[in-house]
Amino acid sequence: MKSRFSIYYRYLFTSGFAAVTLSCSNTRFLKEGQMLYTGGEVKIQNDSLSKKEKNELKASLEENLVPKPNSSILGLRPKLYFYNIAKEPKKDKGFNYWLKYKVGEKPVLLGDVDREFNKDIIENYSENKGYFNAKATYDTVSKNKKAKVIYTLRPGGRYLISNVKFQQDSSLVNREIQTLTPKTLLKTGNPFDLDVIKNERERIDNGLKERGFYYFNSDNIIVQADSTVSKNHKVELNVKLKDDTPDLATQQFSIDKVIVFPNYNIQDVKRGKYNVPMNPDSLSKYAYDDIYVIDPQHKFKPKIFDRALYFKKGDLYNRSNHNLTLNRLISLGVFKFVKNEFIVSDSLKHQFDAYYLLTPRQIQSLRLEALGRTNSANYAGSELNLNWTHRNFFRGAEQFKAAVYGAFDFQMGGQEDAKNLFRAGTNVQLSIPRIVAPFRFNSSSAFVPRTNITLGYEFQNRTQLYTLNNFNASFGYVWKENARKEHDLKVIDITLVSPANVTEEFYKQATTPASRRVVDKQLIFGPTYSYTYTNTMLPKANTIYYKGTLDLAGNITGLVTGANAKNDKEKKIFGIPFSQYAKIENDFRFYHKFTEKSSFASRFIGGIAYPYGNSEFIPFSKQFFAGGSNSIRAFRARTLGPGSFDPRTIEKGLLLDQAGDIKLELNAEYRANIYKFLNVAAFVDAGNVWLINADEHRPGGKFSKDFLSEIAVGAGVGLRLDFSILILRLDLAMPLRVPYYEKGDRWAFDKINFGDSSWRKDNLVLNIAIGYPF
């Protein structure tokens, strides 16, 4: 074994050394007189600047130099090497084209560098940052067909702001500008910075937009800099309106009429059906609260627009309500395009009409889905779904969804006694775009809050073992504070599980109380709440995702009835003991983007479910599980834990669903794109599940102070095929640490034997899934 590994590492070293040697020989491909450009460097000569100021200015200037040299890794340029060794392709496809133009990188030569242009960039940027008398020179250093350009900057002293004046006059717009001055970005003593001045103009423009100046623009503001009134590198700023500012931009506008076209179609406009602007006085007023709705077929109730529109007659225009209205109209889910126009109706009174041109989505849709799937528990199967959606069920933008489905999973290998699984069911959901409650709920969010009502039934048959009838119903609310924060409160969430046709074969295989709880009658009801925060949609290097869930079942009922299962005071409803527990789960994810094609993703899951009162155990369907394609991928689904319990002691493989009341899991993954739709990953997973209470049939399953020694660890590599409409994921994983091995012998490194076919069969786990694991 050792000799095989030593040969393997020698091969890697030899290959790596060869690659490094070849990467260093890029200059041999250059033609006579050509020089490879290795980059530009800026040196700053100014003793009055601090080291920090020099470093910041140097970094900014070098970032603006063009072009960028060929990318390098530890001084090597492998992409350039691939470009050089690849033959010129005859067509825009094939291996040579891919290697040369997709993997490779065209050489950047000294002749491609406009040094005068870069010198001007350095001087202009320096002046924009307050170094008014900056002068730059450059020099070229070359050796062994490589060239580097060194720019020397003499910036002089940096000018600081000595005073800021906001020029006053008697106009309305100027008075409003004066009210914005306390929060100015231009501070006395700060360096002169053109970027800050631009941001100040944008700030004033945004402030005026909130005060009715719809036609104002940041270009209407000029900031004059005068360095002659002060000495010692000081500059005075004068903020004023440009003399040629249009009169319309200085007027404060209010809303006259609000007109909604909820069935707007651009083709109808071309045919002359709609004419915007139009005279609303000639229309039949189909609305209330001074909103005109042009809907001759009465497809929509006017009330939905009253809730979504934040502009009413007489309101002063402001940009926040403008954007808020558009976002709320889109979030109704019934319109695919939302367009807004403001057209002056009375120039003397400074009023305009607000037009909302809404193009509906297809109101009804019917979709048939056929799916094929496999999982790490050696099951494969297919699923058929028929989904019907109505997006305006009661003419109030209510979304009604109904689905029927059937699925069949069969065993492809693994345990001989595993049985096939058949599922069929139906579910319906009504989503109302408002909070239906005895109290009034006001939201200034850009997202319309929703009331969701769901009903569902699923028939589940495990061949030759048992049948389960699952009923569920819920009533609750979903609302977003903003694009990052979402709340989901189910006031009541009910699940009823009723077993049928439980066979003797099941009882032969289910030899422990825990495994038999699968066919217990279950009645679970209570509120659930989840909070989600994410900023992953932002163009940042570091982003996070967090979801916290609280599930409370039977708490009030258990308190009122005095239920206590441990003291033989178990209470029932309709002859079924109701579950009583508290469950908390936290899912935290962190993402770091190295480049556009590589990133790091990590996830931590921590959860605990505690039974009390009317329950001694957590219902099987509400427990935590570990292993599988979205969990610890080196272990098959639901075969890990609890604790150090060894699942191999269970003779029958079918009932190997191991669950726990406590879960800890940590995942880390490096992701990289290597070619168009082809992505690769390397990952490490760790974690386990444990029990709150000891179980004599599952020794080692209880959570204890030794839980760290019971953490399972797995690692692997994966391929991800990103076809835009879906991501097909293939992850190959192997266990590195097995919690049910003897304590002190749980690290599996010394057991790794790739040449052993039986070892590969038992330890290499292939996960096939859709989408990323987290």
TrEMBL record:
<keyword id="KW-0812">Transmembrane</keyword>
<keyword id="KW-0732">Signal</keyword>
<keyword id="KW-0472">Membrane</keyword>
<feature type="domain" description="Bacterial surface antigen (D15)">
    <location>
        <begin position="469"/>
        <end position="749"/>
    </location>
</feature>
<dbReference type="InterPro" id="IPR000184">
    <property type="entry name" value="Bac_surfAg_D15"/>
</dbReference>
<dbReference type="InterPro" id="IPR039910">
    <property type="entry name" value="D15-like"/>
</dbReference>
<protein>
    <submittedName>
        <fullName>Outer membrane protein assembly factor BamA</fullName>
    </submittedName>
</protein>
<dbReference type="Pfam" id="PF01103">
    <property type="entry name" value="Omp85"/>
</dbReference>
<dbReference type="GO" id="GO:0019867">
    <property type="term" value="C:outer membrane"/>
</dbReference>
<keyword id="KW-0998">Cell outer membrane</keyword>
